[in-house]
């Protein structure tokens, strides 16, 4: 599958708790690109991702997706993106499979099995999420990247609490995604070892 | 995510957390039991007061139950996912509240015969009680959801939601108990039930949008 | 018709300078009018033929009750303005006015109770009007509790706006349900609402007292809003300029 999409964020102002986080921030993300958002703690990295995802409203600014202004029609963008925030978005009382099916209902059992294999969760299909470790929950949350066909990924600290093998698997998936023309906007403190990224520094 | 998978997930989670619903029911029955114990167990006091006691207990139980409906979703990040999933947030809120309404009110109706016997409610008024519960409780859930969504980011218990939302429940309590009292003295009660339905329909129009606004403000 | 004035008032800066001009005159004129009305009402108006001098408490009770309702209505309107037009000044208005409304409801409850003691012989009667003021007081306390519990300003603003709008829609329903409930449970007793027509020497001071109360509260609200604006906009250049030039 080949994507071709673009994301234009122009003149965005973000305010939180009466504190300016971003002033007049603009950037463009093209197909096949990884944009890494860098900045100190509290610089507004997560807020920027939330603004793009539509969970937060900026004071000002415009967001264009595929040349279309989605500032006030966010659903257009939201249907072609995966956003994974700080919270994993998993229900502890549901099994891994049930959680993933609630996000990606079209997944076939074989597809599910293969993704869980990749993520080293093969025998946990029927395990409740509450029984998983932090790293395993993170893997389940990231499994949505394999299961949904969206060009834009917004990943907030995707590598948090992942072990070395987990980071490698996710990095290779990111590489594959941009090879297919996808776009990734991510915040992370660690450098990506195998993927070429462009950096956006928030001050 | 689709509306269907959202609803199914909600049902599943509620089913696996059935203890919460059981707790609300137990709370309801216990509050009801306080009145004969604390005031007077004679039929002369209980029969005319039964409708009011049942309704006050039901309102408290519903407030306790509704306080937590978004708490876990907020903590685990699913609330944020609903905001950004591209589906209409008011519709999602409506689905969620409707499922919770059913999950609490259906068992509540099942224990109604029990508590109305305990309080010696005249048998002629029982079906009026059921009608008021069916017509009035949607309003309680819809308004309560707004309060729950506004206070979801707070760690403290249900006190704040009760404080903020309880005054809005007064008309429902007044109309419901008036209907039951009217039926006990042989007056027409259908007007009160119609008022309850009207209040519920009004909150059906307002509440999903307000809940969505509150949820969006809370996830920031 | 041009809406420029509306938008100009909506910006905290121009509202601040506008309110700075009007707060003091509104408050002082309100105070003077109120004193005139109260002195007239308390000292010179003729005593009521039924209640004697005890009726004079209406010169405080009625204006306070009216203001409590008006303030709540204003909160609801500000809530709509805040949710629909996202005007920055509207949540500040809610924050400034909610405690004033609560105090007014409280004054009207206390004076109502005192009046009830002389008129009915008890401090409290479940009269429709007293009960609905009590509910109004609860509504105010809910808003204030919510405001204080939510630490993040943006969330607290949204929350109070939402509750104010829901309250605006619900207020008539609550009020009429209470009146209805009251007529169901009580026969026609002596009510505060349906008094025989007052002679002009009685209602004229009442009218003056009401106007005085309104002006005073307007002045108070403007002052409170100025404080809130200064607090919230403290990082802007104009606030720094203002504070260094004129002090706080």
Please tell me about this protein's structure.
The complex is a heterotrimer of chains A (203), B (220) and C (248). Chain A is α/β, with parallel strands linked by helices. Chain A has helices at 45-53, 74-78, 96-103, 109-118, 134-142, 144-147, 164-179; strands at 6-16, 19-30, 33-38, 60-65, 68-69, 81-84, 152-156, 183-187, 198-201. Chain A has a domain at 6-94 and 152-201: P-loop containing nucleotide triphosphate hydrolases (Rossmann fold), CATH 3.40.50. Chain A is built from seven helices and nine strands; from the N terminus they run βββαββαβααααβαββ. In chain A, the strands form two sheets. In chain A, strands 6-7-8-3-9 form a five-stranded parallel β-sheet, sandwiched between helices. In chain A, strand 7, helix 7 and strand 8 (183-187) form a beta-alpha-beta unit. Chain B is mainly alpha-helical and 220 residues long. Chain B has one domain (3-219). Chain B has helices spanning 3-16, 18-38, 43-67, 71-76, 78-83, 89-118, 126-150, 159-184, 190-219. Chain C has 248 residues and is mainly alpha-helical. Chain C has helices spanning 4-10, 12-44, 58-85, 89-119, 128-149, 153-185, 200-232, 237-246. Classes of the chains: A alpha/beta (203), B mainly alpha (220), C mainly alpha (248). At the B-C interface, helix 7, helix 8 and helix 9 of B face helix 5 and helix 6 of C. Chain C: Residues 25-185 form the Cytochrome c assembly protein domain.
Structural descriptors:
heterotrimer, B: 220 residues, mainly alpha, 9 helices, elongated, C: 248 residues, 8 helices, translocase (chain A), ATP binding (chain A), ABC_transporter-like_ATP-bd (chain A), ATP hydrolysis activity (chain A)
């Amino acid at each position: 599958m080949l994507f071709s999409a673009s994301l234009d964020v122009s003149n965005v102002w973000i305010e939180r708790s009466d504190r300016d986080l971003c002033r007049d921030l603009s950037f463009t993300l093209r197909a096949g690109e990884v944009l890494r958002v860098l900045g100190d703690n509290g610089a507004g990295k997560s807020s920027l991702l939330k603004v793009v995802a539509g969970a937060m409203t900026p004071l000002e600014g415009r967001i264009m997706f595929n040349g279309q202004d989605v500032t006030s029609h966010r659903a257009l963008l939201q249907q072609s993106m995966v956003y994974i925030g700080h919270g994993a978005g998993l229900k502890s009382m549901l099994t891994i499979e049930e959680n993933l099916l609630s996000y990606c209902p079209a997944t076939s059992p074989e597809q599910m099995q293969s993704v869980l294999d990749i993520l080293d969760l093969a025998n946990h299909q029927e395990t409740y999420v509450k029984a998983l470790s932090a790293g395993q929950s993170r893997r389940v949350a990231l499994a949505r990247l394999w299961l949904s066909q969206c060009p834009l990924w917004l990943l907030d600290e995707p590598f948090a609490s992942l072990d070395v093998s987990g980071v490698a698997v996710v990095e290779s998936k990111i590489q594959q995604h941009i090879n297919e023309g996808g776009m990734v906007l991510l915040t992370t403190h660690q450098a990506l070892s195998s993927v070429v990224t462009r950096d956006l520094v928030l001050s | 995510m689709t509306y269907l998978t959202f609803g199914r997930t909600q049902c599943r989670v509620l089913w696996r957390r059935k203890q919460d619903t059981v707790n609300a029911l137990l709370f309801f029955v216990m509050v009801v039991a306080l009145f004969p114990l604390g005031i007077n167990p004679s039929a002369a006091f209980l029969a005319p007061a039964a409708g009011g006691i049942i309704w006050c207990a039901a309102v408290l139980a519903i407030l306790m139950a509704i306080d937590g409906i978004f708490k876990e979703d907020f903590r685990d990040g699913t609330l944020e996912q609903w905001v950004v999933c591209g589906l209409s947030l008011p519709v999602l809120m409506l689905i969620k509240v409707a499922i919770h309404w059913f999950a609490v009110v259906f068992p509540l109706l099942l224990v109604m015969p029990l508590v109305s016997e305990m309080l010696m409610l005249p048998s002629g008024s029982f079906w009026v009680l059921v009608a008021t519960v069916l017509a009035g409780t949607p309003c309680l859930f819809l308004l309560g959801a707004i309060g729950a969504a506004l206070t979801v980011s707070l760690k403290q218990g249900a006190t704040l939601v009760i404080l903020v939302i309880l005054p809005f429940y007064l008309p429902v309590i007044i109309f419901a108990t008036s209907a039951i009292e009217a039926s006990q003295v042989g007056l027409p009660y259908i007007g009160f039930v119609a008022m309850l339905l009207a209040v519920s329909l009004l909150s059906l129009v307002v509440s999903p949008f307000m809940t969505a606004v509150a949820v969006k403000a809370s996830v920031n | 018709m041009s809406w420029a004035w509306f938008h100009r008032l909506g910006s905290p800066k121009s509202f601040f300078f506008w309110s700075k001009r009007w707060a003091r005159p509104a408050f002082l004129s309100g105070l003077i009018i109120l004193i005139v009305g109260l002195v007239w009402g308390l000292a010179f108006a003729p005593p009521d033929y039924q209640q004697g001098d005890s009726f004079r408490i209406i010169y405080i009770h009625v204006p306070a009750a009216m203001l409590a309702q008006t303030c709540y209505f204003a909160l609801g309107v500000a809530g709509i303005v805040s949710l629909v037009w996202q005007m920055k000044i509207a949540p500040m208005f809610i924050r400034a006015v909610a405690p004033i409304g609560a105090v007014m409801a409280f004054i009207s409850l206390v004076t109502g109770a005192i009046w009830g003691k002389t008129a009915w012989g008890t401090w409290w009667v479940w009269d429709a009007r007293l009960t609905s003021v009590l509910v109004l007081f609860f509504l105010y306390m809910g808003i204030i509790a919510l405001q204080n519990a939510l630490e993040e300003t943006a969330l607290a603003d949204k929350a109070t706006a939402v509750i104010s709008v829901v309250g605006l829609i619900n207020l008539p329903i609550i009020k009429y349900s209470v009146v209805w409930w009251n007529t169901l449970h009580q026969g026609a007793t002596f009510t505060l609402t349906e008094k025989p027509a007052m002679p002009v020497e009685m209602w004229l001071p009442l009218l003056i007292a009401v106007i005085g109360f309104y002006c005073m509260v307007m002045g108070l609200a403007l002052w409170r809003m100025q404080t809130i604006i200064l607090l919230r906009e403290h990082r802007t250049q104009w606030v720094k300029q203002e504070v260094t030039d004129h002090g706080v």
